[in-house]
Amino acid sequence: MKKRLFTAVLAIMSMAIVEAKVTPAAIFTDHMVLQREMPVPVWGMADAGEKVTVSFAGQTLETTADEKGNWMVKLTPLATNATPQVLTINDISLQDVLVGEVWLCSGQSNMEMPMWTDRARWRNIDGDKHCANGANPLIRMARMSPRRWEKFPRKDFPISWAALDADNAQSFSAVSFFFGHELQAKLDIPIGLITSHWGGTRIEPWTPPCGFDSIPELKDIAYRVNAKLPSRPEYKEAAQKTIEAYRQWLDAFTMASANGAELLPPPEYPEALKPAINHQQPTVLYNAMIVPFVPFAFRGAIWYQGCSNRGDDMLYCHKMQALFNGWKEVFQNPSMSFYFVQLAPYRYGGDPEALPRMWEAQSAFEKANEPKVGMAVINDIGDYGDIHPHNKGPVGKRLADFALARDYGFKDIQPDFPRHTTFKNDGNKLVVSFEHVKRWKIEGDAPIADFQVAGIDGSFKPAQVTIQGTDLVLSSPDVKRPRAARYLWNQTVTGRLFNENGLPLTAFRVAESFNPEEVVSELVEGEWKLAYDFDLFKGVIDNKTAQYDVDNTKSLTGKVKKVAYFVNGIKRGDGTVWLFTSMDAFTADAAKCGVPTVSSGAVFQQKVTNVFVASNAQGIPTGNFPEGNIEFWSSNYGNQPFLKLPGNNAQAYDFDDSKGNASPEKGYGCMQVHLFTEKTTLFAYNRFAGRENADFGIGNNKGNNNPDWTFMSNLSKDWSSANIKVFVILE
Question: What distance in Å separates the CA atoms of residue 117 and residue 120, rounded to the nearest whole number?
Answer without folding.
Answer: 7
